[in-house]
Write a structure and sequence with these properties.
The longest helix has 35 residues. Helices cover 79% and strands 2% of the residues. Helix 1 runs antiparallel to helix 2, helix 4 packs antiparallel against helix 12 and helix 5 packs parallel to helix 10. The chain is mainly α. The mean pLDDT is 81. The protein has one domain: NCX, central ion-binding region (A middle domain of Talin 1). The protein contains 12 helices and 2 strands; from the N terminus they run H-H-H-H-E-H-H-H-H-H-H-H-E-H.
Length: 315
């Protein structure tokens, strides 16, 4: 049993690494192709890159529905959103002392972030996400993108880089590896949860949420070290909005979603509190180190509850 558990843990880790690597290559290739076609860097940033950082969550969620463990989907989304705010932004604020925001998040980002969080809560509070609600979520991301892309200019042809056949090949190979590695992640989760008698959504809330949020952690800390910490906030905000609207909606078209009661009563309210707290903290266009420590305290409490619930389930 121990050997089997180690094997499944190894498969989980390797699959997560492959998933993150393939997602990164997929985004890089898509970005080069987009630039070569005359798509502006801004459009690529709020679409391809934002979608790319949510690609691991989306891939694992679709596979989870197809494999008969749909409860993983909402755990994946809620866990990743909490991790992005409490852990990613908390760490970033602590590392750089203060995050000075170059733009007013209350112009569009915070209202959409709050709206997506509230809509998610009310949509799944009955333990289900209907197809109608899934279409509403897709409408939400369409409105967000349309407003974000408003009055954006395309670059001149002379400023466009060229894309080679290698970029298109990397796009195809990256997509294939994402699909295969996502299947490996879900298979490992299913097997580990069965061996330890732990609910799959608990693993989704913890290990998967942290693993699939690694791109946000890496991008945010790298941006912070380069003196561009505000990028970390935009990255987390965009990723959370995409997670809620896209990662919850698209898997619904592959099958019904199961919303565990503990997520509705504990983790989803925590996600909403973290979302509101981020808006309050960013009201003065600055997130201080002390505020970052408060975010980390929330994350430590969140992770402690997960561990406690997992231990109780395993008894």
């Amino acid at each position: 049993m121990d050997l089997d558990l180690l094997l499944q843990a190894g498969i989980f880790i390797v699959s997560i690494i492959a998933l993150l690597w393939a997602s990164d290559r997929f985004v890089e290739a898509a970005e080069r192709i987009g630039l070569s076609l005359g798509i502006s860097p801004f459009i690529i940033g709020v679409t391809i890159v934002a979608f790319g950082t949510s690609l691991p969550e989306l891939a694992t969620s679709i596979v989870a529905v197809l494999d008969g463990t749909p409860e993983i989907v909402v755990g994946n989304v809620v866990g990743s959103n909490i991790t992005n705010i409490a852990l990613v932004l908390g760490l970033t604020a602590v590392v750089v002392k203060n995050i000075d925001l170059e733009y007013n998040l209350w112009h569009i980002d915070i209202p959409f972030l709050w709206g997506s969080a509230f809509l998610l809560y009310f949509a799944v509070s009955d333990g289900n996400l209907s197809l109608y609600e899934a279409f509403l979520f897709l409408g939400g991301i369409a409105i967000f993108l349309a407003y974000s892309l408003k009055d954006n200019e395309r670059p001149d042809k002379k400023d466009r880089p060229s894309a080679s056949w290698k970029d298109y090949l990397l796009l195809l190979v990256g997509g294939i590896i994402v699909s295969v590695s996502a299947a490996g992640v879900i298979d490992a989760i299913t097997n580990i949860s069965a061996m330890l008698n732990i609910a799959p959504e608990v693993i989704a809330l913890s290990a998967v949420a942290i693993g699939t949020s690694l791109p946000e952690v890496a991008v945010s800390l790298a941006a912070a070290r380069k003196g561009k910490a505000s990028i970390a906030v935009g990255n987390a905000l965009g990723s959370n909005i995409f997670n809620t609207f896209i990662v919850m909606a698209i898997p619904r078209f592959f099958g019904k979603l199961v919303i565990p009661q503990d997520i509705i009563t504990i983790y989803l309210p925590l996600m909403i509190v973290m979302t509101i707290l981020l808006g309050v903290m960013s009201n003065n266009r600055k997130i201080t180190r002390w505020e970052g420590l408060v975010l980390l305290l929330f994350y430590l409490w969140y992770f402690g509850v997960i561990v406690e619930n997992a231990g109780t389930a395993g008894l």
